[in-house]
Write a structure and sequence with these properties.
The chain has about 375 residues and is mainly alpha-helical. Helix content is about 40%, strand content about 5%.
Length: about 375
């Protein structure tokens, strides 16, 4: 079903929606438009043919709103975006764009366009077959914006988007695809590291001029510390792959510089955009290296799935228990070989919300929200 036909399903809701919007403006609810990969996907991949899915147990085992049922989130509970949204007053998380009849949520609490296995570059994640690259996610947002214009007009849409937050968490898969061995029939020419970094920054920043005023761009975390990368490079327990982390640091440095330039350029334009760089690298590295200081007990093994290929996280034959998952998820840094647990997400989210300029620049997310 295409976007036009989806929009035509509910014309009778327009009057109700306009009435609700007046309440929305008064309540100043938190609205977030989310772009990214599996770190913030909340179910878009449930609606496409892909090998990258989190729609079966034990994924979501600790996610309260679904009573522990999988939603498409690639973790045991909430993502960082979920946690940040709750802290800033969101009544519920933005739904996945591809979920049927999600248009009205454009006004209520935003939309989530993120997709597992997606990258900044179009070819990233080819092995997984289906995914929604950043370029296509932005195209989906443009369709959402068109819907808003049809309902509240161009001026109303501009005003609403000025108050909304836009978050972008993507890039990890672009680097992971570059460092992992080539797969027959799915192999791609690998770019030199500096060319890859520059291409990622260029493509990402090209998609940032969306008419928004509040933008959070999350840097890539220390991928050399995730179980997948450590297993791939035969890194011993308690250590990280410095080679992989060096690639990430180089990209983050270039991204941060580019965002600083954008802040200077767009501050003089009509919508006075602000781009916050979220330093997830240093936050998560500190967590991995000092996990006991944060009340965690394991920063090496994933809570769910194997430590070696194929790194599969799945529910065992006993449907009353999750044989592949650890019993106390609150003590692990990693949920599976790629993604953090809700416990880790809570620690990082709190820092991004209220931390100083070593965590987020030019200021933290809570300050951005209050602008």
């Amino acid at each position: 079903m295409d976007f036009t036909s989806r929009c035509s399903l509910k014309p009778f809701n327009f009057t109700f929606l306009l009435l609700w919007l007046s309440h929305f403006q008064a309540a100043q609810s938190f609205t977030n438009f989310i772009f990214g990969d599996s770190l913030v996907d909340v179910g878009n991949n449930n609606y496409i043919f892909t090998l990258s899915k989190a729609d079966s147990s034990p994924y979501g085992i600790d996610f309260g709103p679904s009573n522990g049922q999988p939603t498409g989130r690639f973790t045991n509970g909430r993502t960082i975006s979920d946690i940040v949204g709750e802290a800033l007053g969101a009544k519920s998380a933005p739904p996945p764009y591809l979920e049927p009849n999600s248009e009205a949520n454009t006004f209520l609490n935003g939309i989530n366009y993120a997709s597992g296995a997606a990258g900044i570059l179009d070819d990233t994640g080819l092995f997984f077959i289906g995914r929604v690259p950043l370029r296509e996610q932005v195209s989906y947002f443009e369709k959402s914006r068109d819907y808003m214009v049809r309902v509240i007009g161009e001026n109303g849409t501009k005003e609403m988007l000025k108050k909304a937050m836009f978050t972008m968490t993507i890039g990890s898969n672009d680097i992971l695809n570059n460092i992992q061995p080539s797969i027959p029939f799915f192999s791609q020419d690998k770019l030199p590291i500096d060319v890859l970094q520059d291409s990622m920054v260029l493509h990402l920043t090209t998609h940032l001029k969306l008419g928004a005023r509040k933008f959070v761009v999350v840097g890539i975390g220390p991928l050399g510390c995730i179980p997948f990368a450590r297993a791939l490079n035969l890194i011993p327990a308690g250590k990280c792959s410095e080679q992989v982390n060096q690639i990430v640091r180089g990209y983050n440095m270039k991204l941060r510089h580019s965002l600083k330039t954008l802040n200077n350029e767009l501050r003089s334009e009509d919508y006075n955009a602000t781009f916050v760089y979220a330093n997830s690298y240093d936050l998560f590295l500190k967590l991995v290296l000092n996990y006991r200081q944060f009340g965690l007990e394991n920063a090496d093994k994933p809570c769910c799935g194997g430590y070696f290929p194929p790194f599969t996280c799945f529910k065992g034959p006993n449907q009353n228990s999750s044989q592949a998952a650890c019993e106390d998820r609150s003590k692990f840094v990693f949920w599976d070989a790629y993604h953090p647990t809700e416990a880790a997400n809570l620690i990082v989210a709190k820092a991004l919300l209220d931390g100083d300029q070593t965590v987020a620049t030019p200021f933290n997310i809570r300050y951005l929200n209050d602008l």
